[in-house]
Design goal:
The longest helix has 30 residues. The protein is an all-alpha fold. The chain has 5 helices and no strands. The radius of gyration is 20 Å and the shape is elongated. The two termini are 35 Å apart.
Length: 150
């Protein structure tokens, strides 16, 4: 087959390697999703096998956390695939994590280190997600910018 007959490989419209910032952001978002999933499964197992005050509430909370874990996990996969849509759910996840981190920091218990860790991860992920290199790698244009630059 000649070069004219050989179909071009399908690309997602992004040239070059994925920026490290984008990879780091995807890893942080995936870690948050994984933590939510593990916490949800743990809560679900304790609700079923343990002796909770309210079994139905424990099971519902566990299922809710597992379902909520899907948002950052799908967003992380989209970030790794350089999909522009994925930044929105990833940013929303970080914004939702900040009040949770604040509440954990207000506790007088072992939750304080978890609150610190969550706050650091959420802020770091937000910084990485709004970075111009990340935005450009995802193909996100700012307001008023044309589709194709001259």
């Amino acid at each position: 087959m000649s070069a004219e007959q050989t179909p071009a490989p399908e690309t997602d419209g992004h040239d070059g390697p994925r920026p490290r910032r984008l990879t780091y952001a995807a890893v942080l978002v995936a870690l948050e999703g994984l933590a939510l999933a593990v916490g949800g499964v743990w809560m679900l197992v304790l609700g079923i096998t343990g002796d909770p005050d309210d079994r139905q509430q424990a099971v519902t909370g566990g299922v809710t956390l597992v379902v909520l874990a899907l948002l950052p996990l799908f967003a992380a996969r989209g970030l790794l695939g350089r999909r522009g849509w994925s930044r929105g759910p990833a940013v929303i996840t970080q914004v939702m994590a900040l009040p949770v981190a604040y509440n954990l920091l207000q506790a007088d218990s072992m939750a304080i280190p978890a609150g610190i860790a969550l706050a650091v991860v959420a802020v770091a992920a937000l910084v990485l997600l709004v970075n111009p290199a990340t935005t450009q790698a995802l193909g996100i244009r700012g307001p008023g910018r044309r589709t194709e630059e001259p």
